[in-house]
Structure formats: structure tokens, C-alpha cells
Write a structure and sequence with these properties.
By secondary structure, the protein is mainly α. 71% of the residues lie in helices and 3% in strands. A two-stranded antiparallel ribbon has the order 1-2. It is globular.
């Protein structure tokens, strides 16, 4: 009986290992500095992690199909620059578009999302129709997008100057909050990220596209045989991911109050790492939104928490690297056990 109980407890903890790790990290940092458990700290971590959660969910779509997307960070940078360039105040000395009238704030936001979606469509077409491996396809678009963004950023009169002077009605999307009273607030950007996560959870679990996504990642040949239009579904999935990257880029510009062509640099690796740590299989066919969220929070806690207690950024990189390697090794072990 004791053996059965221990087996059940072990199985329960293994299924929820990511959450156990997150709790242990929080406890360890809190022991070093109890002030870390303040509500304001949690709010700051969630605010900083919100755009990364949206990017990681976009990356999860691709990983579950058995692919990968290296272009996400550069899409974030491109859409941040495009949206920010259209939403500067009239009195800013170095306006990107000196003669541009004050646009309705939603318009540049939608433009940013649409640009991300178009990049996703291009990625999907290259992968699904030209049969270029996702790693190579998105590596190519990653490099190309950065070049396009740098050319746009270097246009006169801006000429590669950081884009600042953003309008308050745009910045509020990234830094505004709802006052809950008693000194407690919840940022709008956190609510947006939660809404995106909820919508994508529905897509993952309750829609035909979600079921097809898992089927393609589980066995693409079986998906073909079962009548799934793999190419069309892949294009849809890459387009959705691109739109999510576009939204994240817009929100990142709003959160930081500016943009440069280097925004989003290496975000793709953070997103993939968060997905892998959160249980999204590198072999495809496996992954959950709640796991991705936990993976993002783990890295958010590591980045914020270890800095909070004065740990060198270099040690933080070592810790993150060990976590990523351990997560991938665990994923491969589970995959081999199933075979």
C-alpha cells in the first residue's frame, strides 16, 4: 500500500514538475529576502513577463507541429518600431513622421499585428508549400526582417535614432493599470496577456485547428492519411503565431515607452526555452498553455528574483542554461520511454 501511495505521489509530482520547480525557486529567493513575496514584486514580474508569454504562446503553436520559429524576436522588433513610429506626440523634436496627423491609437496597433501576421504567412508558405525545414525557413526570415527593420529605422529624418516621445494613450496599454484599492493594482498588459492565453487555450483544446496541430506534430504522415490538409493548417498556425508576435511587439513598445531596431533580440530563444521548460515537446505533438505560462514565469522569477537578491547576471545565465538542458533531457527521456 505504501509503495502504491509513493508511486502515486511520485507520478503526481512528475506530472506537475514545472510548478514544483517554480514554487521551489520562489521559496529559495524568499528565504534570501522575505520582501520578495510582496505583491508589488509579483506585479512587476507579471508585467515584465506579459509580452514574453504572448511570444512563447506563439512559439508553442509552431513547436507543437514539430517545427521551430527563429523569427519571433525580429518580428517583435519590427512591429515595435512600426507602431512606435506612428504614435509620437506632436511636440517631439525628432518625430519619425513629422507631417503625420495624430492617428486613432488602435490603427498603428492593428498595423503592427497585421505586419506580424503577414510575416507568419510568409513563414508558413515557405514551410508548407516550399517544404523548407522550419529552422532554415525562419532563420532566413529572421535575418531578412532585421535588415528590413534596420532600413526602416534608418529612414530620414530618424536615421537610426531611438524612437521616443510616445503618446500617453499608447503607453497606457503597457504601463497603465486598474486600481484595486488598498495599494493593489493590476496592469492592463497582464490582463491582455491573460486574455490571449485564455483564447489560445480554447484554440489548443476546443477547435479543429488545435486538434489538427497536435495531430501534425504527433505524426505528420498519419495526419495526411487521416485527411488533414497539413499545408493549409501549417499556414494558419504560422500566421496566428506571427500575429501574436506582432501584438507582443506593439505592447513592448508601449511598456517601455520607445523602440529601436534591436528590440526583441534573442526573444525567440527565451520563448523556445520557456516552452521547453513548460513541457512543450521538441519532438512535437505535446504542449499545454498552462505549462508555457509556468515556463515563462520560471524565467521571469529567475531574471527578476536573482537580480533582486544581488546575484550576478552571469550566474543567472548559467542557471537558466542548466534548467533548459535539464528540461530537454527530461523531454527526450519521456519520448524515448514511449517508443
Amino acid at each position: 500500500m505504501n509503495t502504491q501511495l509513493l508511486f502515486k505521489v511520485k507520478d503526481y509530482l512528475m506530472q506537475r514538475a514545472i510548478f514544483v520547480v517554480l514554487i521551489l525557486i520562489v521559496i529559495g529567493i524568499a528565504v534570501a529576502d522575505p520582501n520578495f513575496l510582496a505583491f508589488s514584486t509579483l506585479r512587476d514580474i507579471l508585467q515584465q513577463s506579459s509580452t514574453k508569454l504572448i511570444i512563447a504562446i506563439g512559439a508553442a503553436f509552431i513547436l507543437i507541429t514539430g517545427g521551430t520559429d527563429l523569427s519571433s524576436g525580429r518580428v517583435v522588433g519590427l512591429t515595435a518600431v512600426i507602431s512606435a513610429s506612428m504614435l509620437q506626440i506632436d511636440t517631439y523634436a525628432n518625430r519619425f513622421y513629422p507631417d503625420l496627423p495624430q492617428l486613432w491609437v488602435i490603427a498603428p496597433i492593428l498595423i503592427g499585428i497585421i505586419v506580424g501576421l503577414l510575416v507568419g504567412l510568409i513563414n508558413g508558405f515557405i514551410v508548407a508549400k516550399l517544404h523548407v525545414p522550419p529552422f532554415i525557413a525562419t532563420l532566413g526570415t529572421m535575418v531578412g526582417i532585421y535588415g528590413i527593420n534596420s532600413l526602416y529605422f534608418d529612414m530620414k529624418p530618424n536615421q537610426s535614432q531611438p524612437i521616443g516621445g510616445l503618446r500617453d494613450d499608447f503607453k497606457v496599454w503597457g504601463s497603465g493599470y486598474i486600481d484595486l484599492g488598498g495599494g493593489y493594482t493590476i496592469p492592463y498588459i497582464v490582463l491582455i496577456a491573460l486574455a490571449v492565453a485564455l483564447i489560445c487555450w480554447v484554440v489548443f483544446n476546443k477547435t479543429r485547428l488545435g486538434k489538427n496541430m497536435y495531430a501534425i506534430g504527433g505524426n505528420v504522415h498519419a495526419a495526411h492519411v487521416s485527411g488533414i490538409n497539413v499545408a493549409r493548417n501549417l499556414i494558419y498556425i504560422y500566421a496566428i503565431s506571427g500575429a501574436l508576435y506582432g501584438l507582443a511587439g506593439v505592447l513592448e513598445a508601449a511598456r517601455t515607452g520607445g523602440a529601436t531596431n534591436n528590440y526583441g533580440n534573442m526573444y525567440e530563444l527565451d520563448a523556445i526555452a520557456a516552452c521547453v521548460v513548460g513541457g512543450v515537446s521538441t519532438a512535437g505533438g505535446v504542449g499545454k498553455i498552462q505549462g508555457v505560462a509556468a515556463g515563462v514565469l520560471i524565467f521571469g522569477v529567475i531574471n527578476y528574483g536573482l537580480t533582486y537578491i544581488g546575484v550576478s547576471p552571469y550566474y543567472q545565465l548559467i542557471i537558466k542554461g542548466l534548467i533548459i538542458v535539464a528540461a530537454v533531457a527530461f523531454d527526450i527521456r519521456k519520448y524515448m520511454a514511449k517508443k
